[in-house]
Design goal:
Chain A: This is Ferritin-like domain-containing protein. The complex is a heterodimer of chains A (239) and B (267). With 239 residues, chain A is mainly alpha-helical. Chain A is built from seven helices and four strands. Chain B is mostly helical and 267 residues long. Classes of the chains: A mainly alpha (239), B mainly alpha (267).
Chain lengths: 239, 267
Amino acid sequence: MKKNNLPLSTDKGTHKTNAPLNRRSFLGYAGVSVVTSALILSGCKDDEGNIGLPDTGVNLGSGDTGILNYAYALEQLEAAFYTQVIQTKYSGMTAAEEQLLTDLRDHEVAHRDFFKAALGASAIPDLEVDFSAINFSNRTSVLGTAKTFEDLGVSAYNGAGKLLTDANLLLIAGKIVSVEARHAAAIRSLINPNSADFSGDDVVDAATGLDVQRMPGDVLMLASPFIKTKINANNLPTT
Amino acid sequence: MNILRIIQDIEKTDPEVYERLNSRRSLFSSLSSFSTKAAIAAVPIALGSMFKKAYGQSASGVLDVLNFALTLEYLEDEFYKNGLASPTAIPADLRTVFTQIGKHETAHVNFLITAISGAGGTPVTKPTFDFTAGGAFADVFTNPMTFMAVAQAFEDTGVRAYKGQAGNLISSNEVLTAALQIHSVEARHAAEVRRLRGQKGWITGNSRGDMPAATQAVYNGEDNVMQGGIMDVKTVTTAPLSAVTEGFDEPLTKDEVLAIASLFIVS
């Protein structure tokens, strides 16, 4: 893998970033402004999406930056999960399954590293995960968890799109969510091949054909059993 | 989706939304007592009414996007209807899969028609399709290999089409959300069809894999690694280049999508 000297490049060995420059360059280019964030926050007093989540811990921040950190948190979770899946393969993992799960690991690592670099100095720290409920030697446990994470990721990006103010960032979120949806379908078809489950009625409303969408508070609540680090999402935009 | 929440959200950026909605106010209030199912069913008409009553002509850009989406959904819906009606297009063990896909495309057509009509717009009429693309896919409804290849082209195109329109909906939160919710369903379909064909569920580089050369336009540009215009993702990650291209699906412009779709549209 080549390494270049662009301002946005990072040290892959240690994952240190040229943080201040990164953030200014990327988010500056993307048009995130303090004024926009302030306007959004002023309209968010009835923050019903985040009830029940801690107001201490790692603060995701506000505005578009907060949403990127929210996505970064979810991608950290997914990348850590698939890294473990490949490190401790479940018994009976076929070559095709290993290839697929390796692809998923690499996609999530790419997503995670992208958000870290894009956020620069604003990036939240590395989260500590809690996979104690997952039996990594068991196919059903691993694929069931993968299904949960992928469907959750799809619903998270679907719900967060409207919270972004910058069209460039919305487009990037769109580029990622469809990949998460591809993952979800693939995992679901591994569990139950040649069925309707790849886009089952449990996630896609049968009457409207619309996939699940969730607000950040709901997503983080569902993800919280798998994340030891407390996450404070109270400053995220809600509209 | 919660209709009351939609209005509350709009009120935050437009304090006069209730005045704009005027007589609609009682309708939205009454929705709070509906069951979730009924509320969901009311979404497209409510979206449409809101734009028509509250914002008049400013909805025209949104209507353009919705009608563009409707054209693509007509294409997919009729394609799967024809496939399911043919005794030889779909292997028996895959009928469940394609029935599910077809069900969603029909739902998308109905959802979009209702939303457009509700907004005071006119849903585009369904084009006349030629799924053989002038003979290029002559056995599309008699040969499962051809049928599934065309299905993959439609689904991968659909994903890119919705993605390309997201920016045009950024000021219309609830329409944007609905579009994203359709977009991810198209991506689920795409992955399933690709995998049934023995392909990866995701697109590597700009490769069309084993697809006919005529479909290359569906995959052009998917090898992009530059995000936000300035960040070369392969320089910030340990993931291999293939994963960097697979991990980010790329958009198509409306014109690019219509150029692809026009191969299948007679009039």
